[in-house]
Automatic annotation (TrEMBL):
PANTHER family: PHOSPHODIESTERASE YAEI, TRANSMEMBRANE PROTEIN WITH METALLOPHOSPHOESTERASE DOMAIN-RELATED. It comes from the Bacteria. This is Membrane protein. It comes from Streptomyces longispororuber. The keyword Transmembrane applies. The lineage of its organism: Bacteria, Bacillati, Actinomycetota, Actinomycetes, Kitasatosporales. The chain crosses the membrane at residues 72-92, 99-120. SUPFAM superfamilies: Metallo-dependent phosphatases. Residues 185-352 form the Calcineurin-like phosphoesterase domain. Keywords: Hydrolase, Membrane, Metal-binding, Transmembrane, Transmembrane helix. GO terms for molecular function: metal ion binding; UDP-2,3-diacylglucosamine hydrolase activity.
Length: 441
């Protein structure tokens, strides 16, 4: 254990070479670093395969942490005073000034410790962030040129990486964090695949690891929306879960018609509701198909009109006694128009992850690019990450209980992060909000 200067504070637990667990435990100019120098591979594998064994170690671990923290505090104070005093003596050549320097250093450390104690957040373990190189991928995975010729290897390694990180994260998340019960509905949110064939192996791995009940794709699965691209959609039939899809601005009507014919697939459009895996969905396709240069793009006004149309349908469903649980639109501009008509609305388009609670209580989830932005990944200096999310829904109320954000390194990279998040209303003692009634309903 060690204390290090930091602008943001927090705690970082480094388990080399597997990765690191980051906790926003406190706000102070010092960070607590915990390094695990050595792992017993046999015992580590046993914990991964039998995570329930961790429960028997809680008291022992707690005692070790307390003793280690006290030992660290004593060592830090001694080191700071000794170091500052020695430096002061070397600079000033006067014992009194040297002792003053040591006292000042001790006072600063004490102030930092007090700030850390005052801002200590024991609930930080509810939202851990795990990151690291969790797969000993072959060298071809890290070489962009080799990926072109060995792309199938790259796809398999990404899928294996997802498997490894989710297994290890599952062990860490059995700490005092949200733990879904067997009845929880698990929804996988993907978006903006943009013709990246590696995405299907990643999605398939996530479906298996998280025991996904339904996949929701918020559009831009294609890049140009041509009939020649349609065969790219065929793996959807074998992903292992129902596939709910809405048209993006890179998906044509031709794409939509082809996908609607695939088994186990549900296309959302025009606000018509669909019941899948115990959840009632409704959505609307993007009104603009931007690859078609013969038609002038109308921008946000067209998206707002589409969102208003979707909101009208949602109000009609609620008035009929069959309210929609989740709305889906590709563009967040359209999705925001549903505020107050549905508890949760999903979108994509922006190629980065966001979660926002709108003015009237509707929660907006924007997914990143599960395809790593497709071919656009090679346009910038750094490849875009591959992103997806697992949403945990209460089966009785269909309300969001927690979500895991999953982020993989982009083209040629094997870094992975999984971070768990809880809605504020799901914290202990909080009252879950409901969307405010729309005055037009």
């Amino acid at each position: 254990m060690a204390l290090r200067p930091s602008l943001t504070g927090g705690t970082k637990i480094d388990v080399s070479p597997l990765g690191a667990l980051e906790l926003r435990s406190h706000v102070a100019p010092i960070r607590l670093d915990v390094d695990v120098d050595r792992l017993d591979p046999v015992r580590s594998e046993a914990l991964v395969n039998h995570p329930e064994r961790i429960s028997g170690l809680q008291e022992e671990v707690a005692s070790d942490v307390v003793n280690g923290t006290l030992n660290l505090a004593v060592r830090s104070c001694a080191a700071v005073v000794a170091g500052a005093t020695a430096l002061g003596l070397a600079v000033y050549r006067r014992p009194r000034r040297a002792l003053a320097a040591g006292g000042l250093a001790l006072a600063l450390l004490a102030a930092s410790g007090t700030a850390a104690y005052a801002t200590w957040n024991p609930k930080s373990v509810l939202e851990p962030k795990f990151s690291g190189l969790l797969s000993s991928a072959p060298s071809v995975v890290g070489n962009a040129r080799s990926i072109v010729s060995e792309f199938d290897v790259y796809q398999r390694e990404l899928a294996r990486l997802v498997t490894n990180v989710t297994k290890l994260y599952d062990v860490t998340s059995t700490l005092p964090a949200y733990e879904p019960d067997p009845s929880t509905i698990r929804l996988l949110h993907v978006s903006d695949i943009h013709l990246n064939p590696a995405s299907w192996k990643i999605v398939s791995s996530l479906v298996e690891q998280y025991e996904i009940d339904v996949i929701v794709d918020s559009g831009d699965t294609m890049d140009h929306g041509t009939a020649a691209e349609n065969a790219f959609l065929d793996p959807i039939e074998d992903l292992g879960a129902p596939y709910v899809w809405v048209r993006g601005n890179h998906d044509s009507r031709t794409t939509q018609r082809y996908l609607a014919k695939l088994k186990n697939t549900h296309v959302l459009d025009d606000g018509k509701p669909v019941d899948v895996a115990g959840v009632r969905f409704a959505g609307i396709g993007d009104p603009q198909f931007t690859p078609d240069r013969s038609t002038k793009a109308e921008g946000n006004p067209a998206e707002e009109v589409a969102g208003i149309t979707l909101a009208s349908s949602l109000r009609a469903q609620a008035a009929a006694g069959t309210p929609v649980d989740i709305a889906v639109a590709h563009n967040p501009v359209a999705a925001r128009q549903t505020d107050g008509t549905v508890p949760l609305v999903l979108a994509g388009h922006l190629h980065h992850q966001e979660m926002d609670v709108l003015d009237k209580g509707t929660r907006l989830r924007i997914e990143g690019s599960t395809g790593g932005s497709g071919l656009r990944a090679v346009e910038g200096e750094h490849p875009d990450p591959v992103e997806a999310s697992v949403l945990y829904l209460d089966r009785a109320t269909q309300r969001l209980q927690a979500w895991d954000e999953i982020k993989l390194g982009g083209l040629g990279l094997t870094k992975a992060e999984v971070s768990r998040h809880l809605p504020k209303e799901n914290q202990p003692g909080a009252t879950p909000p409901t969307p405010s009634p729309d005055p037009r309903s």
